[in-house]
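> call design_seq(struct)
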């Protein structure tokens, strides 16, 4: 290949990459958005160094429904990241599309409706995992331990700041 052809190829790749950066990145396996949030379906999930059973297990997630962020895909494997920023590769069968969030503020107030002035229906402790419902620009509907209500999005991990759900 000539130098000119190589340069043209590199410029085309850069331009394509720039155009792709303007749109949402998609996973090569599922064609779903990356990154995206999921939850741990199983009560235990091995986190591996690479995307295969031959890779070493670095640790084991032990909280069912724990929210995780998928950052990459390779075959039946998903690279995930948790609220602490730790991550690795997990087999897709251990993950669920059901959305959950991790409470990052102790005694987080759940309100009957979105808004600080609405009645408080419950308080959630730091580290509680809650099911995620609808989300507006600043508030999300949660359910945990038989309680339901709305909480500030900034106190949750497992939902994007600009994410809207209904």
């Amino acid at each position: 290949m000539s130098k000119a052809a190589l340069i043209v190829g590199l410029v085309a790749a850069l331009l394509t990459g720039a155009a792709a950066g303007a749109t949402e990145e998609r996973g090569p396996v599922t064609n779903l958005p990356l990154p995206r949030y999921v939850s741990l379906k199983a009560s235990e999930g091995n986190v591996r160094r690479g995307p295969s059973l031959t890779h070493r297990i670095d640790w084991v997630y032990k909280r069912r429904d724990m929210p995780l962020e998928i950052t990459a895909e390779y075959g039946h494997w998903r690279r995930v990241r948790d609220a602490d920023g730790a991550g690795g590769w997990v087999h897709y069968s251990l993950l669920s599309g059901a959305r959950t969030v991790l409470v990052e503020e102790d005694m987080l107030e759940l309100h009957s409706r979105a808004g600080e002035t609405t009645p408080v229906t419950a308080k959630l402790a730091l580290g509680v995992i809650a099911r995620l419902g609808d989300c507006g620009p600043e508030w999300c509907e949660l359910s945990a331990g038989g309680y339901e209500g709305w909480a500030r999005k900034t106190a949750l991990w497992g939902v994007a700041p600009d994410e809207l759900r209904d």
